[in-house]
From TrEMBL:
InterPro entries linked: ACP_syn_III_C, ACP_syn_III_N, Thiolase-like
Organism encoding this protein: Mycolicibacterium elephantis DSM 44368
Protein name, as recorded: 3-oxoacyl-ACP synthase
Domain Beta-ketoacyl-[acyl-carrier-protein] synthase III C-terminal: 242-332
GO molecular function: 3-oxoacyl-[acyl-carrier-protein] synthase activity
Source domain of life: Bacteria
Origin organism lineage: Bacteria, Bacillati, Actinomycetota, Actinomycetes, Mycobacteriales
Keywords, sorted A to Z: Acyltransferase, Transferase
Coiled coil: none
Domain Beta-ketoacyl-[acyl-carrier-protein] synthase III N-terminal, first and last residues per copy: 112-190
GO biological process: fatty acid biosynthetic process; secondary metabolite biosynthetic process
Length: 335
């Protein structure tokens, strides 16, 4: 049974926010000159009262316009990932299903996929649909931490705050031969799962009340490890998929990755021997979009006419401090 990624639709909240916004708050930071935190020219921030459910609903509008409300309402499997859940005790899948008028048989909230969550969602959707769980699946991802966590008064002074941007995306997956998912590789590196931490002063658990604001606990040592893992993992999973589908990496028509910083983007396309024009890069427009990066960049490529029917697209990413990575190849069938 062939399962396809039929379409994606995306949403960027608000007007672009320039680098000067963070420059006015910048303080001395030992990590400010690190390649991990060289700021993009622009990024978008979620609105002060905008929820992840709102973002996904707005992202879905393009699918409704192109495929009809009945296609969305009739989705059998809903798979979601939210960077910062609206409620800490449960994911947003139920509320998203209700807002979109769905009654799916399956609602799954994924957290471990991180920046590679869209690829993980494709893997889960493909397995479920191929096993007979339904005919269609919707993958919904929302990155909403930039305008909330990273824009807190004390956090936005740090170098790390200027890099993330917010956005949401949905992908429509179905039993179809139109845009077949050729192969997927997902790998879990559990030994690295504890390397991403929340830092707060004075120290406390993330859920405890206190005066300090939480942020990502980066150090020079951790950054060195993350750079090494990311540089290795994304090419590894991409090469594994290429080997199985019989396509050399340098012959891929398009590479779509997550985009933590410019260094990763350059290193990944060089590792796959691809020219810059065959690697989608919206970093200076959107910043680090975390899990929303792959589908938003994919949507940009389609809108810009960079993809044609029959093209092979590789989507690849790694998550957190390197505890997960995934790659998926699709033979694009056009909209």
């Amino acid at each position: 049974m062939t399962v396809s990624l039929l379409d994606v639709s995306t949403y960027l909240p608000g007007d672009p926010i320039g680098a000067s916004y963070y420059a006015q708050f910048a303080e001395s930071d030992a990590l400010r000159d690190n390649v991990m935190f060289r700021a993009p020219r622009f990024r978008h921030h979620v609105g002060p009262d905008e929820t992840a459910v709102d973002m996904v609903e707005r992202a879905t509008a393009g699918l409704v316009q192109r495929h009809g409300a009945d296609v969305i309402a009739g989705v059998d499997v809903l798979i979601t990932h939210t960077q910062l859940p609206d409620m800490p005790f449960y994911g947003g899948g139920g509320a998203m299903a209700h807002r979109l008028g769905m009654k799916p048989n399956w609602v799954l909230d994924l957290h471990n996929g991180g920046c590679a969550a869209f690829v993980l969602g494709m893997q889960v959707a493909r397995q479920l649909l191929a096993s007979g769980a339904g005919q269609t699946a919707l993958i919904a991802v929302a990155q909403n931490a930039a305008g909330q966590v990273f824009d807190q008064p004390r956090v936005r002074r740090k170098a790390q705050a200027a890099v993330p941007g917010d956005g949401a995306a949905v992908g429509l997956v179905a039993v179809s031969e139109r845009s077949p998912i050729l192969d997927i590789e997902c790998r879990t590196y559990g030994e690295f799962a504890g390397d991403m931490t929340i830092a707060v002063g004075p120290p406390r658990k993330w859920w405890q009340a206190g005066p300090g604001e939480g942020y990502i606990g980066f150090t020079e040592s951790k950054i060195t490890k993350v750079l090494a893992r990311g540089n290795r993992q994304v090419p590894e999973v991409s090469y594994a998929v290429c080997d199985r589908i019989g396509v050399k990496p340098k012959d891929l028509d398009l590479l779509v990755t997550n985009q933590p910083n410019r260094v990763f983007l350059r290193n990944w396309r060089e590792a796959l021997e691809l020219p810059k024009e065959r690697h989608v890069d919206t970093f200076d427009e959107c910043g680090n979009l975390f899990a929303a990066g792959i589908p938003i960049n994919f949507d940009h490529a389609i809108a810009e006419g960079r993809l044609h029917a029959g093209d092979v697209v590789m989507m690849a990413a790694f998550a957190h401090a390197g505890d997960f990575a995934g790659a998926a190849a699709v033979r694009w069938g056009g909209r």
